[in-house]
Design goal:
By secondary structure, the protein is an alpha/beta fold. The protein is 45% helix and 12% strand.
Length: 619
């Protein structure tokens, strides 16, 4: 077998793996692709080949080119074997990503983006997830060992001399360059190209998890529709001198209320309206305390997460900055942005961030520090107070009751105004085994029963925290905000709105009279709201508007490599080049209204991208 024949076999195996992954997504998640005709599916597989080749040769191109070099010493068996094993392990990594992508797609109806960066940096959590799914890991190991065996047999097949070697190598070199770029066009292949048809389901069939994850992780440049600054000003009704200002969105805040209040934020992992009876009306009967707080406080019925990851939620809430396509999250962002805790500290407010997980999990410690919290605590700082299931006591994601009781101790040591941010993660997968009375449902580490038991426990823990807080002097001057980072991604089949709708409750029985709010709002509106609640005097930048002031009814969202806008009349999803899914919420929305929605969505995206990329977001 000649070297180029062997390379064709290696590449063919790789392409077959990508084909199986695409077929797996189509078959397993067939309901999502139900709108595509058989012809469109065939075209999707054909177009997908371009993305598969790009994914394959960006990573495998260099070792394959070295293997094909027209030198006699490249025929040494040991050298060829070493290069073949490098190709194998790269392909094994890609195959693992593709399998993960097939599973992940069902949770959020999109491919992997840069979630892999956060998993790689949090090995303990990754090990815990593997331990929760031993069957899949065992199957993977068996397949890996079998693949190594057959790959070695293929690699050790003797090679014969190649005629016209230099000429063939030159052709192969050009092929690798063209395939890696995704063609001979002016610009290399990008995620947005998959959505050029205007259909999100067709685009997701064309894409593969390796391509979307690698491009998003490297924050590759994203193509945007060209919109003039004058058009943007007109669309968003911005001031005439908007673009001339150094920081166009910066605002000076004067206290909106007559009094300054303490603020406690309960940031609950995957808290989803469907499972809270006062929001979903499904009679699960596991959220008595949250139901009571929503009845006696301000309940926001049309509140949305900005994204589908914890980092998107944290970024929106703590710094008022949207997750922008083509730019990194705050954990990797060098541009300036306003920071809620730093602003509070400048106003004499004590700030504490308490995280139920290990201190460094999900980069929370680094983020809390960058945002300006003067104190940060994690699982390592909290004593275990309850007798949990023996298999779960040392859980890396921690326990919400211990987190809340620890937070209460910290508050009681403060004698001035405070901001306390509490991240509760018992409801994160893998869900823990619970003891009575929090085991009413059959346990499943990644299933609905496990989540319901965990949520029941979290609700009880919040109730205990509130009961103890009400006995403290500071309670009468404190506002409690309860919300989530994102909707639960597992075992959900909701529409576009349901994939982002999360609860928001403001609870302060001696300050706020009960009411329900129907205005469409999002996590981007919380930082301005918190600044108003605490009565902070400052200059800051945020894309949202305080919920204590007159606010336009809309929410900007991000779904993987797509963006969207939600209003009280309709919603629209976009690739920044093509309009994709859209729909009516109110019968009064006509076609012209969706043109307006598209214009506003693209204008806000352009404003955010322009200001952040040029470091004009905030002083």
């Amino acid at each position: 077998m000649g070297i180029f024949q062997k390379i064709i076999v290696y590449s063919g195996i790789g392409l077959f793996v990508f084909l199986l992954a695409r077929l797996g997504i189509l078959l397993i998640h067939h309901e999502y692709f139900g709108s595509l005709t058989f012809g469109e599916i065939l075209v999707g597989f054909f177009y997908g080949l371009r993305f598969d080749l790009a994914s394959l040769f960006v990573f495998l191109g260099i070792p394959l080119l070295i293997m094909a070099l027209p030198f006699r010493w490249m025929q040494y068996k040991w050298l060829h074997l070493a290069l073949s094993l490098i190709v194998f392990f790269l392909l094994a990594v890609q195959s693992t990503v593709l399998v993960a992508d097939v599973a992940y797609f069902g949770y959020v109806n999109r491919h992997l983006t840069n979630e892999l960066l956060f998993l790689v940096k949090d090995i303990n959590y990754l090990i815990k997830e593997v331990a929760a799914n031993p069957t899949y890991f065992t199957a993977w190991m068996v397949l890996f060992i079998m693949a190594v065996y057959y790959w070695l047999r293929l690699a050790l097949v003797p090679m014969r001399p190649v005629s016209w070697h230099l000429f063939k190598f030159t052709l192969f070199f050009l092929f690798v360059i063209i395939a890696g770029r995704g063609g001979i066009g002016m610009k290399p292949l990008a995620i947005v190209h998959a959505y050029s048809s205007g259909s999100s389901s067709f685009g997701n069939l064309v894409l593969n998890g390796v391509f979307s994850a690698s491009q998003s992780s490297l924050t590759a440049p994203v193509a945007r529709k060209s919109i003039s600054k004058e058009q943007i000003k007109e669309t968003l009704n911005l001031p005439e001198d908007f673009w001339q200002k150094q920081y166009p969105l910066s605002r000076n805040n004067k206290p909106h209320l007559n009094q300054k209040y303490n603020l406690v934020v309960l940031f609950v992992e995957s808290l989803t309206p469907r499972y809270i009876d006062s929001f979903g009306g499904n009679n699960y009967q596991i959220t008595a305390n949250l139901d009571k707080m929503s009845l006696e406080g301000w309940k926001f019925n049309r509140f949305y997460s900005h994204g589908q990851r914890s980092i998107d939620g944290l970024q929106s809430v703590l710094v008022g900055l949207p997750s922008i396509l083509g730019l990194p999250a705050i954990s990797h962002l060098s541009a300036n942005y306003s920071k809620i805790a730093a602003i509070a500290e400048q106003n004499g407010v004590s700030t504490i961030f308490v995280n139920s997980t290990l201190r460094e999990s999900f980069l929370f410690e680094a983020i809390a520090g960058s945002v300006g919290f003067s104190e940060y605590y994690g699982k390592e700082d909290m004593p275990l107070l309850l007798d949990y299931h023996p298999d779960e006591k040392d859980r890396n994601l921690g326990w919400d009751y211990e987190t809340l009781m620890f937070s209460l101790e910290k508050i009681n040591k403060i004698d001035n105004q405070f901001l306390l941010f509490i991240s509760l993660n018992t409801d994160h997968t893998p869900f823990p085994k619970m003891k009575a009375p929090f085991n009413r449902h059959n346990h499943n580490a990644t299933g609905e029963g496990g989540y319901l038991n965990a949520l029941h426990y979290t609700d009880w823990a919040i109730g205990e925290f509130m009961a103890k807080s009400q006995k403290e002097e500071w309670f009468s001057n404190t506002i409690f905000a309860v919300t989530s980072d994102h909707v639960l991604g597992h075992f959900q089949n909701g529409n576009f709105l349901q994939r982002f709708r999360i609860p928001l409750i403001f609870f302060a029985p001696e300050i706020l009279k009960p009411k329900e709010i129907e205005t469409v709002s999002s996590q981007l509106d919380l930082m301005p709201t918190f600044i108003d609640f605490m009565g902070l005097e400052t200059e800051y930048t945020a894309l949202g508007t305080s919920l204590l002031r007159n606010k336009e009814s809309f929410a900007l969202v991000r779904e993987g490599s797509l963006v969207g806008i939600i209003t009280d009349r309709g919603y629209l999803k976009h690739s920044l080049i093509h309009r994709l899914e859209f729909g009516k919420v109110h019968p009064g929305a006509d076609d012209n209204y969706f043109d307006l929605l598209e214009d506003r969505l693209l204008a806000w995206d352009n404003v955010a991208y322009e200001l952040v990329s040029n470091n004009r977001w905030s002083p």
